[in-house]
Amino acid sequence: MASVDIRDNPLGISWVDSGWVPILNPGNVLDYFSERSNPFYDRQCNNELVKMQRLTLDHLNQMVGVEYILLHAQEPILYIIRKQQRQSPAQVIPLSDYYIIAGVVYQAPDLGSVIGSRVLSAVHGIQSAFDEAMSYCRYHPSKGYWWHFKDQEERGRVSPR
């Protein structure tokens, strides 16, 4: 079995810088997200160019490439950041979403991961039900198949008074 690199599946990791948590707000959450130690942030994005040239985030609309935007804010606990590929001033392709809850950054799962997890959970439940049903099934060459439930055996042993 091949080992899985954490960069291949970032859904299981989180990141936090506790120094920022008390002061997070919609105005500085992108600065928080762009911290060097954040594994989710791409240093080659347009946000870095805008920051180096000391421009406003409004200039991102005129650039082409990967960028991060604040998609939603529910102060003081929830912020959603979107990584997107800008094709033109009017066209963007969402790449991934990140949510920040109480200062902790997580990558939001994509639809395929959610559906895969739900299907796996359902199949596990169905398999467990079949395994339990098979534990009650009995066979004898002279009798054939029948169901043998443990509670029937216990009822037969208890005699009425």
Beta strand %: 25-35%
Distance between the termini: 61 Å
- Can you list the strand order of the major beta sheet? 1-5-4-3-2
Structural class: alpha+beta
Oligomer: single chain
The amount of helix comes to 25-40%
Number of strands: 7
**What is the approximate shape?**
elongated
Q: Mean pLDDT, rounded to whole units?
A: 87
Number of helices: 4
Task: Please compute the radius of gyration using only Cα atoms.
Answer: 27 Å
Largest sheet: 5 strands, antiparallel
- Which blocks of ≥5 consecutive residues have pLDDT under 50? none
H/E series = EHHEEEEHEEH
GO molecular function: transcription coregulator activity
Protein name: Mediator of RNA polymerase II transcription subunit 6
GO cellular component, one term: nucleoplasm
Organism: Scleropages formosus
How would you characterize this protein structure?
Belongs to the Mediator complex subunit 6 family. Keywords: Activator, Nucleus, Transcription, Transcription regulation. It is found in: Nucleus. The protein is an alpha+beta fold and 161 residues long. Helices cover 29% and strands 29% of the residues. It contains four helices and seven strands, in the order E-H-H-E-E-E-E-H-E-E-H. A hairpin with a 3-residue loop joins strand 2 and strand 3. The longest helix has 26 residues. It is elongated and about 85 Å long.
